[in-house]
Structure formats: structure tokens, C-alpha cells
Amino acid sequence: MPTSKVRTYSLISHEAVHLISNLIKVARKERQYTAQEVAERAGISRGLLQRIEKGDLKCSIGAVFEVAAIVGVKLFDAEATTLMKHILHIEEKLALLPKSVHKRTKVVDDDF
Amino acid sequence: MPTSKVRTYSLISHEAVHLISNLIKVARKERQYTAQEVAERAGISRGLLQRIEKGDLKCSIGAVFEVAAIVGVKLFDAEATTLMKHILHIEEKLALLPKSVHKRTKVVDDDF
DNA sequence: CACTTATGATCCATACATAGATCATAAAAT
DNA sequence: ATTTTATGATCTATGTATGGATCATAAGTG
Questions:
Q1: What is the per-residue pLDDT for A20?
Q2: How high is the mean pLDDT of chain A?
Q3: Which of A54, A89, A107, B106 reaches 20 to 30 Å from A47, CA-CA?
Q4: Is A26 in contact with B93 (Cβ distance < 8 A)?
Q5: B103 Cβ nearer than 7 Å to chain D strand
Q6: What is the distance between the alpha carbons of residues A64 and A60, in angstroms, rounded to a whole number?
């Protein structure tokens, strides 16, 4: 066997994705959508939707967000999260920051 | 050319991912982290980090969330979002819902 | 009850995301 | 100024995520 790569993720990532997946699953059932329906509307396969609803970390973020939007889960809408409020100035903030990060190569020459 | 598949995404998905990517980029620079550093810590390539910071929808959600955690972007932490509050009962909620969604196959037989 | 449909799981083939390298430019340091 | 380092872009090879099918079971329907 050609030794497949096993990526490891932090707990917080697992939890976050698990959370989203549960939100999606609940929302879909509340709205009485069939897995097949949602998959078609999202332009993905039913199999992928299954993995998304299971919290598979390897699914593309686009697919996950697309499904979330379809079943009505507001992840980053202004009403749903405070995140959006901080965002408004993010582009400007980015412009002000230095373009690249340079590390000190020499140790600080503390003379004492 | 073997006609590559072009997936289409809704505006909201684009915006959400774009938002996250900007948050990540700003956070990384504020903390003076090199792209190389962050990539290594996340266990991904610098190239992938570039795509993440660009808002590429095809990156895996695990990689994106991992990087976000490393640079200190709180996407779904209790303090950062109201989402977490709704979540607490999500598992119970899921348990109460019907296990599968069945569609009406016959049209409602409205007799008039 | 019988019947239908949804879901979950598994397998395979292939399109594609990713790692890794290289190069050019830009920005910071000295 | 020179030198060093970070970033952005591009290319290739390969591991793998995804689509599509199938099957078994569960869960509604009538």
C-alpha cells in the first residue's frame, strides 16, 4: 500500500466543522428537504452531501458554504454573527499593514 | 483539452469565504507571521496558504479552519459568534426530528 | 400489513486539489 | 547603495476528493 497521507487537525477545527454540519442537517430536515434535493440544488453529489453532514474536514469550503446557504444556515450573515461587524474595515486594515513580514535574522544586540 | 468542470457558487458563499480569507491575512500580518511559518504549523504547503488567503472556494474546510485557528481568527468560538449559543441544543434538536424526509407522492386530493 | 422512499454505507474511476519546486518582483534590513 | 527575505505566480506529478453507481436498512405512507 502506497502509504496514504493522514492529515491531523486541531480540536477546534473539528468542533467548528462538526457544528456547521449539524446545523446543516437540522436545517435541512426542518425544511423538509431531501438529501437528493439539496445535493442537486447545490450542484453536488448526494455522497458529498453525506460527508458534509457528517463533518468531513476534507470537503471543500465552497461546497459546505453553498449547502449551508441553501438550507438557510446563516454562517456569516450580519444578523447571525458579530464577525460581520468587524469585517467592514478589514480591507482598509489590510492596506495599512506592511506588505511583507520580515524576521530579525540577528539576535538583538543588547549591550550591558 | 478534456473540458474541465467549472463549478458555480452563490454570491453569499463567495463573500463568506472572502471574508474569512481577509481575516486570516490580516491576523497573520498583525502577528508578524511569515506565510512559510503558518503553512508549516498548519501542515500545509505555502501554495495552499496562498490560495486560502485569496479566498479560493475549493480549498478544504479543514485546512482553512486550521489556519484560522493558528493565526488567531475565532470563527466559531463562543466569544466571537452568537452561533455557538444556538448550538448547545443542536444535538438534542437533531434527535427529535424525524429520521428521514418523505415527500408527498400524490397530489393532495382536494375534493370540491 | 405491504409498499415506497430516504438514508447510510461501500466501491470504483477520474477529474482535480495539493505539494514541491522554481522564478521574478518587492519589500525590508544593513 | 547592497543584501536578504517574503511574497506572488506558474508549472508538474501525484495523492485524493468527488461523482456515480449499487446495496441494505430504516423510516414513512396508505
A1: 92
A2: 83
A3: B106
A4: yes
A5: no
A6: 7
Q: Cβ of A73: how many Cβ atoms within 10 Å? A: 21
Residues 48-107 of chain A with CB under 7 A from strand D are: 48, 51, 56, 58-60, 63, 99-103, 105
- CA B111 remoteness from chain centre: 48
Q: What are the residues whose beta carbons fall under 8 Å from the beta carbon of A110, sequence distance 6 or more?
A: none
Q: Enter the DSSP assignment of A107.
A: P
Residues in chain A closer than 8 A to B62 (CB atoms): 7, 9, 13, 17, 57-58
Tens digits of residue pLDDT in B3-32: 567 899 999 899 899 989 999 999 999 999
Pair A19, B90: CB distance under 8 Å: yes
At A16, the amino acid letter reads: A
Contacts of B67 (CB under 8 A, 6+ apart): B24, B38, B42, B44, B49, B52
The answer to whether some atom of strand D lies closer than 7 Å to the beta carbon of B47 is yes
Q: For residue A112, what pLDDT band results from cuts at 50, 70 and 90? A: very low
- Supply the angle between the helices A46-54 and A61-71 in degrees, to the nearest 10: 90
Q: Which of the pair, A82 or A48, is modelled with greater confidence?
A: A48
Q: Supply the pTM of this predicted model.
A: 0.85
